[in-house]
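PROTEIN DATA CARD
Card holder: L-2-amino-thiazoline-4-carboxylic acid hydrolase
Chain length: 215
Origin: candidate division WOR-3 bacterium
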Amino acid sequence: MTSGKEFDTSLLIMPLLTHLLEGEVPNPRDFIDACSNKLEPFKQSIDPKFPKSMINSRAFYLLCYIDLKKTLGQGKAYEIIRPVLLTEGMARMNLVFDTASGRSFERLIEKVFAFNHSLNLPFEVTEQSADRFCFSLKRCTFWELCCYLEIPEATTLVCQVDNAFFNSYLPDEVKFSHGTPCSRLVDGASSCRFVFTRTIGLETNPPQCPSEVDN
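Structure generated from the sequence above:
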């Protein structure tokens, strides 16, 4: 992507976060400002082995989650940050995968390869055909970061972003899943499975939708 397409996703998220904090903390704006003031020290305290790009994009939301968890409990903190990270993640993934330039099953696979390589993620393609693409991630740096911060449960927030983005990429043509239950690192598996199945588009006689009724 070109620098001209870079976008500050916080422009989308701050109004949503402020709204979700209403009635949960005494003053939402003060809470956000307090987290913002602690952000740089928080980022500097994180082991530099973690990718800087990931820290820059996720640290603020994780810091908010940690502070909310201390005051409101894990369940409430999770439900507040969940729609925030889903919204931010969907926007970010659409930009990274450059969906505005076109979407196809083949392009999705191409972008997955590029995305994994850009983050130096060790992955293994286990199946690739005209209608199915599967790979396994041997490591998940976000899961490792959440474990490092002692909030492993927050890993599934990004898993939900994957599910939402990939299942809406071509919603009538491609289905995404992790294959079977408990097939993620966060579940205790040895790797995370990513399974993309092309459900329409290869048929000799694809289904036809009824014509619209003329007014």
